[in-house]
Amino acid sequence: MTVRTCAAVTAILVSAGCGASPSAEKPASEHPVKVQAASLKEGFGTMERLIEAAQKEGTLTVVGLPRDWANYGEIIDTFADKYDIEVKQLEPGASSRRALDAAAQLKPDVFDLSLEEAVGAAGRFAPYKVQGWLDLPDHVKDPSGAWYAAYGGYMSIGYDPRAVPAPASFADLAKPGYKVALDGDPLRSSAAFSGVMAASLQGGSPRPQQGVALFAKLKKAGQLTSTDSANTVITWDHVNAARAARNSGSWKVVIPAGAPLGVYHVQAINKAAPHPAAARLWQEFILSDEGQNLFQKGYARPARGEAMHMRGTLDAEQAASLPKAPGPPVLLTIPQTDAGKTYLKKEWAKSGG
């Protein structure tokens, strides 16, 4: 990681007899550390002092980070080795909702959340703006620094090219030969829900009834199955791309041109973090060039990717290996997400489930 020194300067007047004279500027190293600060400059002055404060705490507690998701295994191990800090990994399979609901019990330092969950719980986070703050697009960060995206992806179709041709659209999945699986139950799984919503896109807008109707048609034709017996799986592109990398020639990935549904995963610091300096160091690390390239190594798309590309710090070879995106992602608004969930709750069991 690049270490940058941000000097915090304070002018001090010292009384001497009847008058006062200015002292020399106080160096950042003399300022007291504020582990609850909202920026590196405000709380620590330099990365060295943040690292020192985090190492004194000695531990970082994370929740809901599967090691095989977006390369989190390597990211966690790299952080732990780089800074000599123990990372406690609690409930790797926990959903965003579960992570928040169990926070009082599990006491995590940081969260990795869906946008809708982060927005609803913003008051529970400690605002902190990382050094790469200005590189993050405005629409994927809270203005106060309560939460901000670290990586994202597109909903995709993974398929076995030995069994079926490359689908050009979600509608193609209704053709003979496709045995299709969602990545879970769309009433419980965020990935599966997003798969239905991707299939519902028309002209960039979601029409939940269209998505549910497709999967009802697949079910009726006996083409909707489990991931174990499917030759086609609908899930995030980094999941399908990782499978393709493990199974060269027997798995490929496509993001349909008419349905570029995207999502960002956002980060936040627990306001009650037991290790506040380590939490801030973690955020600096995963939003650094090194951390962002590690996400990309797991086929996720770095939130700072565009700025890094312009500076030449993005791993270009790895970027070229990502599934080709047909254009900018369609990001569902919270009202659109809520409307989709309401519709599926009413219709999925009788139509698609």
Describe this structure in words.
With 353 residues, the protein is of the alpha+beta class. The chain has 2 domains: 13-152 and 263-320, D-Maltodextrin-Binding Protein, domain 2 (3-Layer(aba) Sandwich); 153-262 and 326-351, Periplasmic binding protein-like II (D-Maltodextrin-Binding Protein, domain 2). The protein is built from 14 helices and 14 strands.
Number of separate helices: 14
How many domain modules?
Answer: 2
CATH architecture of the largest domain: 3-Layer(aba) Sandwich
Order of helices and strands: EEHHEHEHHEHEEHEEHEHEEHHEHHEH
Structure class: alpha+beta
Helix percentage range? 25-40%
Q: Please state the overall shape, judged from the principal axes of the Cα atoms.
A: globular
The N- and C-terminal alpha carbons lie at a distance of 47 Å
